[in-house]
Design goal:
Order of helices and strands: EHEEEEEEEEEEEEEEEEEEHHEEEHEE
Largest sheet: 10 strands, mixed
Radius of gyration: 26 Å
Shape: elongated
Distance between the termini: 41 Å
Number of helices: 4
Strand content: 35-45%
Mean pLDDT: 86
Number of strands: 24
Low-confidence stretches: 4-15, 17-27, 54-61, 267-271
Length: about 375
């Protein structure tokens, strides 16, 4: 619990808030970076950006995101057009044809950039998806197995939907005319429970090349037991696909660069070149990688069994009565009773997001997975 003074207004505003450098030796012109994850049977994502260095030997830096026309085509002539802008594009899920190869085309800067033709292989089979927990974290555990046609490498992403509640149920009201606080006899809980959705763009990469074609209890996601994902109902969906050894090494390189404080494009010169080329001039350097894979998914639901959430009473503040009207005009309102340093019950004041879950990033309607 915080005690208010006019000088502490800035601190009070924090209530209920919870918490590219590429060594490309010979690049002095703008170069395209294409990073695409094409998942047949699911939504696919394509990210485009530019790299630029000012002179030979300098580290390249991000130089914006291009506008482009992007589409996927198969060997039978079908075309699947991406939507988006400013370097971020998606291709909606479609039913892939059998026994077909695919390639990605990017039209920008008056040039045509294409991936090589890729024949996707079947994704590993998800044999189990479960939750586990230690003293502080909840873990989502994946087990997989392939039929012998896989490479021994896989990629995965995690999509989440969860039901959470606001930090407090609003139990007090304020009358600015009389400058009084009163108890609400039947508190309104219509904005106490909400839903939230999150889809991570980060890929988890899995190396099971030396494990006999299977993996048990690989951690694909974790969150603290104190997190609001544990409030009542948490839905997880895992997408899994095959990676070639080259794709795995590329993803691993990006992961290692990020872990040492670099960025996604900080490798040595020869390592970042992928499977995209300029059709008009193959000598034009293009960086990044296009992955085209079949995908398998599985969903799992968790209740509140691992929850260690605690009511954050310290996020509410005691405000002297003579300042109530002023703080009310700044958007603050009494929420519930708290104890002050003298162990007296006093109104605890906070912003709307303390008791209204829609102001804390939630929606009243349960969303669906894309």
């Amino acid at each position: 619990m915080k005690k208010f003074s006019l000088l502490s207004t800035a601190l009070l505003l924090a209530g209920c808030v919870y918490p590219f450098s590429v060594e490309l030796e010979d690049i002095t012109e703008q170069s395209l970076v294409a990073d695409a994850n094409i998942l047949l049977g699911s939504t696919s994502t394509i990210k485009l950006s530019y790299l630029q260095s000012l002179q030979v030997g300098q580290s390249a830096v991000s130089a914006g995101r291009p506008s482009a026309e992007v589409y996927l085509e198969d060997g039978s002539g079908h075309r699947y057009t991406a939507t988006g802008s400013y370097g971020n594009y998606t291709i909606p899920a479609f039913v892939p044809s059998q026994d077909n190869s695919y390639r990605l085309t990017i039209l920008c800067d008056g040039k045509t950039f294409r991936s090589e033709w890729i024949e996707p292989v079947a994704a590993p089979r998800i044999t189990d998806l479960s939750f586990g927990a230690d003293e502080t974290q909840v873990h989502l555990l994946l087990s997989l197995e392939d039929d012998g046609s896989g490479s021994g490498y896989a990629g995965a992403t995690l999509d989440e939907i969860w039901n959470f509640h606001a930090d407090f149920l609003k139990e007090l009201s304020y009358d600015p005319k009389s400058n009084t606080v009163s108890v609400i006899m039947n508190p309104d809980d219509s904005v106490y429970w909400c839903w939230r959705k999150y889809s991570s763009n980060s890929q988890v990469i899995i190396d099971y090349s030396s494990l006999g074609g299977k993996v048990n209890n690989f951690v694909v996601g974790s969150f603290p037991r104190s997190n609001n994902r544990n409030h009542r109902e948490y839905h997880a969906r895992v997408k899994l696909w095959n990676l070639t050894p080259e794709q795995y090494q590329y993803r691993k390189m990006l992961e290692e660069n990020a872990s040492i404080g670099g960025n996604l494009f900080s490798p040595e010169p020869g390592e970042v070149r992928g499977n995209v080329f300029c059709e008009e001039d193959p000598a034009v350097k293009v960086y990044g990688y296009v992955n085209i894979s079949r995908v398998t998914t599985r969903e799992l639901v968790l209740d509140d069994r691992y929850s260690r959430w605690k009511v954050p009473y310290t996020s509410l503040s005691e405000i002297p009565e003579e300042n109530w009207l002023e703080m009310y005009g700044l958007g603050y309102t009494p929420v519930t009773l708290i104890t002050n340093e003298n162990m007296e019950y006093v109104p605890g004041w906070g912003l709307g997001r303390c008791y209204d879950c829609t102001l804390a990033g939630g929606t009243l309607e349960k969303p669906d997975f894309d």
